[in-house]
Amino acid sequence: MANGPVCMIGKGSSPDLVCLIDGDGDGRFEPENNDADSYYVTTAAGDGHQVTPSDERVEAALQRLGATRLSGSMDHLGKLIDYANTEIRDEASCANARTLIDKIRTQSDPKVRQEIAFRLHDYKECHEAMIELMETLEADADENTRGKAAASLGFIGNRLAIPALLAATGDKSPVVRERAASALGALKAAEAVPQLVKMLDDESKGVQIGVANALGDIGDRSALPALQKKYDRTMTAADSVQDRYIQEIHYRVGYAIEKLSRFHG
Questions:
Q1: What pTM was computed for the model?
Q2: Which domains are delineated in the chain?
Q3: Which helix (H) or strand (E) covers residue 73, if one does?
Q4: Given pLDDT bands bounded at 50, 70 and 90, which one contains residue 226?
């Protein structure tokens, strides 16, 4: 057995969890009669006793699992999430997220930070993950990392992120502006419509496409006049210029108009 905290699934199809609870030996951690709210912990010495999810030893074990860098611990922690009850699952998820948060704060490689920013959307039940993504969106030096953070906030779907995403629509990077607009669409943020309407004429054609999609997703009819004007302008351009971006903008704006009309027809 390796030194330090470990948690792994028992053999076969049994959902038993073998965990280091107190740091002084192996222990079997399993539901009592398949009741997810009550557990027996049997230490290596064989003495068994009942614990609940709030037992401080269980919480301490989860915290140690989240902090460890032992090979495979992240995978084992993910398996724990699959089998434990809601309280333990949420704490395990946050322990896992904290490991990623620590890494994104100290990692100098932007590609690694991008990957972490994307992975953090898996932890929507952990408020700390959303806070870290908002901070990353505001302050990370790498545009693609900021863009991944914006996208993850859209996937998480918490409306508390709307102010941060609105601020990001003014980012100097078109990658970030487009991802922020898309995330606002995913959140159906009607309060973002005035800003998104202005962005229909963004200098980046990619941003214009993202904004048209977002306005269609939000479904607020107040955007219809601006969308119609954009549609009319791009119709002429799409017919006269062989520019796939112009043609795509025209199509996306038209589709947004159709969606808004269908929502309220």
A1: 0.68
A2: 191-265 (1.25.10.10)
A3: helix 73-83
A4: very high
